[in-house]
């Protein structure tokens, strides 16, 4: 399957993402999930970004709401708009999972 | 469209949030959804408990006696009664130290024939692949 | 174009998942898609009209009406609303009330489902 | 006896922290203590009368009225209520509405404060 | 200070408890916090119970609501009623902290 | 009773939940609480950000522009303006890789004299010991 996963929390209370597999997987960071795109807790990238074979996106509105400029995010992550997320859902992926 | 498969995935414990319970009530609503659908269409739900969600399936819940609220156990048993598949992830039970005899395995007292199915995450992954939509709670 | 159904279960104030849903719906409609929205759990807090638009609080009533005007179908879970004391006469104009089977039925024909089942 | 003030910020349905607060207040009153309760954030969902007592949902209106009858003071955050569309006429009998300074003032004389500032 | 700490979550998103000190500390497990009194994730007691110099309580109503009989809880934890919690707050401790 | 000290402790990030913001608005309300109190009584609040709560203090928040909601930054600055102490735990900033120049350090543009205080957890512990009541968010 082609799966778009939404993460909206910084402290996650599930480990579903780590276990799920997809032929094509995108992780879209929204809400407090965007902190995964920028914080380096203990000097390290968020473990979320180590999910292999995955493309990462972060909603720029939610980054900027929290005082994070898109220029400062991890190079693994692409800043996207609401319109971009619509295209990802409708064109690039078939199913969604808001964890 | 014919029969459309849906997978309801409960990842979090009961009672702290209403949503695990709403997973069950929404899945049960598939029984009456035909009034809104075209002839021949239907939805076929499966409810699976993974991660800390397996805590929803511990038996002997006294929510009605103590708080006057229907227990999640009672919703699970009603689901079995209408033949809705209830799956529980075995690896997560093991991790949390839960054994099958602590869990809701059936609803025989209600006359349900279907039993809870204890499955591996690999089985759940296969189901995720095969359904049309995923609904995580 | 295609059809997107969004199910939301998060509360009105605080989590901002409702704000997210309305902004996403807006963007989808702007691209020519049809959008359906289902509100259940604490998200039925949208089903009470007359919410004051303080700047300290999320306020989505205006945006919602705009989207209904653009053809978005929005339905709230009737039992969830009644349990919170929201009755038929409290419902904002253009919003429908139904039982959960409305949402289940929508999943059959919709091209995509975004189910926000957490806060 | 002594005075206990409970501040609650959790939503009506789901978290059960409101159910906890009312049961704790009940137990404290039974032991002869004076209890004050402050509802803010999503806990102002108690400030809408006419909630249907479904068995699937927490329902605290009856218990609340009983405790008010036993002398519990209960006040909800007025702005939090208005932002959610709950007006003066929606307020259950015996419940007061005030701004946050009511709660702050209670902390001065109360012997104990239990502040439930999460879900 | 004499501090009664309330924990109502199983997956905690704060680490305040680990860092706080009190001359006398009690941890009262309520809501989903009661799982700390019984679950042995990976075969081990919950790390919450390793807080030194602390007395642990769990609300029996909340244990039983979740299908846990008070007889089965960790011997480190004492099952208490709502009335007991009132006495703990009013008599045994001076301040409370709901984390 | 005289002056009663209160400590508001924010442990969680902004915007996912209303409560961190309510910590600030409640603390600010101490200014007007006198109408409910006896002559000579007052409440003296301090707001401290610990753990992931320090994320509330990142500067440049665009919540009003993007979502039409007052930013937590704006509430923090209003607090400084009325001389309400705002403390931020240094160890947690270090752990999350945040430097002082990324944080709200003052509200000079509003004319506030008070500045944010970056403190160690040991200082916060001392304050916890000395106040009458603790309010965690």
What's a concise summary of this model?
The complex is a heterohexamer, with 2 copies of chain A (99 residues), 2 copies of chain B (137 residues) and 2 copies of chain C (119 residues). With 137 residues, chain B is α/β, with parallel strands linked by helices. Chain B has helices spanning 19-28, 63-67, 72-81, 90-95, 121-130; strands spanning 3-10, 42-49, 86-89, 117-119, 133-136.
Protein architecture, described:
- The complex is a heterohexamer, with 2 copies of chain A (about 100 residues), 2 copies of chain B (about 140 residues) and 2 copies of chain C (about 120 residues).
- With about 100 residues, chain A is an alpha/beta fold.
- Helix content of chain A is about 20%, strand content about 25%.
- The mean pLDDT of chain A is about 95.
- Chain B has about 140 residues and is α/β, with parallel strands linked by helices.
- Helices cover about 30% and strands about 20% of the residues of chain B.
- Chain B has helices at about 20-30, 65, 70-80, 90-95, 120-130, and strands at about 5-10, 40-50, 85-90, 115-120, 135.
- The mean pLDDT of chain B is about 95.
- Chain C is α/β, with parallel strands linked by helices and about 120 residues long.
- Chain C contains 4 helices and 5 strands, in the order E-H-E-H-E-H-E-H-E.
- Chain C has helices at about 15-30, 60-70, 80-85, 100-110; strands at about 5-10, 35-40, 75, 95-100, 110-115.
- Chain C has a 5-stranded parallel sheet with strand order 4-3-2-1-5, sandwiched between helices.
- Chain C starts with a strand and ends with a strand.
- The model of chain C has no long low-confidence stretch (mean pLDDT about 95).
- The chains are: A alpha/beta (about 100), B alpha/beta (about 140), C alpha/beta (about 120).
- The interface of B and C includes residues 6, 30, 32, 33 and 35 of B.
